[in-house]
Amino acid sequence: MSSSSAASLLDVTLRPGAPPMLETGTIDDPPGWAAGHTDALRAVVTEHGSLLIRGLGLADAAGTGAVFRELTRELMTDKEPFARRTTHPGGVLSATPWPPNQQMCMHHELSYTLEFPGLMLFACLTPATGGGATGVADSSAVLDALPAELVDRFEREGWQLVRCYNEEIGATVAETFGTEDRDTVEQYCRRNAIEFDWQPDGGLRTRQRRSAVVRHPVTGRRCWFNQIAFLSEWTIEPEIREYLVDLYGTDGLPFTTCYGDGDPIGEDVVHLLNEVYEAHTTREPWQAGDLLLVDNIRAAHSREAFDGPREVLAGLGDPVRLDECAPTVRVTR
Predict the structure, then answer these.
(1) Cα 86 from chain centroid (whole Å)
(2) SS3 119
(3) Any bridge partners for residue 255, and if so which?
(4) DSSP label at residue 97
(5) Cα separation of 205 and 199, whole Å?
(6) How far is CA 36 from CA 10, 61, 67, 124, in A?
(7) d(CA 45, CA 51)
(8) Which of 31, 146, 262, 331 is positioned for an S-S bond with 193, CB 3.0–4.6 A?
(9) Alpha carbons 115 and 118: distance in angstroms, whole number
(10) CA 48, 270, 258, 100 torsion: positive or negative?
(11) What is the pLDDT along the chain (333 residues), one digit of tens a residue?
């Protein structure tokens, strides 16, 4: 079945500024419905990068997990997190903890690791009273819209994620690596091409160089795939960045990104990336029970600031290795 025929068969609605949407009507057996439509749903996601399914009535972690497992080959655990998620039985995760009054900028989940989810699944149990939409941006369109000279540099050099761990701000060593044992942490870093330095105060500083542009393992499409803007110091609220610089210095920020050769990425570049993302963002306000599927390589996702309570569960589906995506930067371990 082609992607186009799948979309037509499922009566998917395509609207400017919004992700593709499928309204199912009332479904009595969501896991059974998902099992019977998995191939067609995934074909639409492959073609368009995302699909919002409305009508499943997902209401709790158990029911959500049953649907997630029908739609994926495997659900991953979180890796090298920046904030600790709540893990529900069956591999269902809470959304990443992030201040409600701050936007989470566009990013590709775990694009700084050597193995990352190919499919992201989001289920809205409780929508916010205002804001809180999960935006989606086509990474191929973003790549085409970026200045050629900037893309060329990132293709040649890749990008680096720099993290400085401490006990006060962000995830600790134990929260990120699951242990405080230095030997175990060092073994993990070596296996995963992460440079590391233990600091005199006992803190840890790491660097990992990754490709910024990859090819989709199924379609071969070139995709802008990274977290250069999201994890940049220039995406942090200015007053928070100033506080962190005063506290830790520019070389001790909890996280930032740079070019693959180690040169700083300027504030102007980060703002340009976020502007291009915004120009290619589609969004739809959440309704209770919604399910959003996102091809994690073909599309980036974000989260708007919000008011009131909001509960969205996540699944990291179908792990993909970086070396399956024609990386432009060689990783040595």
Answers:
(1) 17
(2) strand
(3) 163
(4) P
(5) 7
(6) 12, 21, 11, 22
(7) 6
(8) 331
(9) 9
(10) negative
(11) 444 445 556 889 999 999 999 999 889 999 999 999 999 999 999 999 999 999 999 999 999 999 999 999 999 999 999 888 889 988 899 988 888 998 999 999 999 999 999 999 999 999 999 999 999 999 999 999 999 999 999 999 999 999 999 877 778 999 999 999 999 999 999 999 999 999 988 889 999 999 999 999 999 999 999 999 999 999 988 999 999 999 999 999 999 999 999 999 999 999 999 999 999 999 999 999 999 999 999 999 999 999 999 999 999 999 999 999 999 998 877
8 A C-beta contact, residue 312 and residue 134: yes
| Those residues with Cβ within 8 angstroms of residue 326's Cβ, 6 or more apart along the chain or in another chain | 214, 215
Phi/psi for 160 (5° steps) reads -120, 140
Q: How far apart are CA 160 and CA 212, in angstroms?
A: 9
Q: Within the chain, how many helices (H) and strands (E) appear?
A: 9, 19
Q: What is the pTM of this model?
A: 0.94
Which residues on adjacent β-strands are paired with residue 264? 258
For residue 123 the two structure tokens come to 């289920």
If one counts every other C-beta atom within 10 angstroms of the C-beta of residue 245, the result is 15
Contact 12, 53 (CB under 8 A): no
Which tokens is 181 given? 């044992």
Q: What is the CA radius of gyration of the chain?
A: 20
Please name the amino acid found at residue 204: L
Residue 36: closest CA among 58, 14, 57, 56: 56
DSSP state of 236: S
| Residue 161 DSSP one-character state | E
Structural domains in the chain plus CATH codes: 3-140+275-319 (3.60.130.10), 148-224+231-265 (no CATH)
Query: Residue 304 has which token pair?
Result: 């708007």
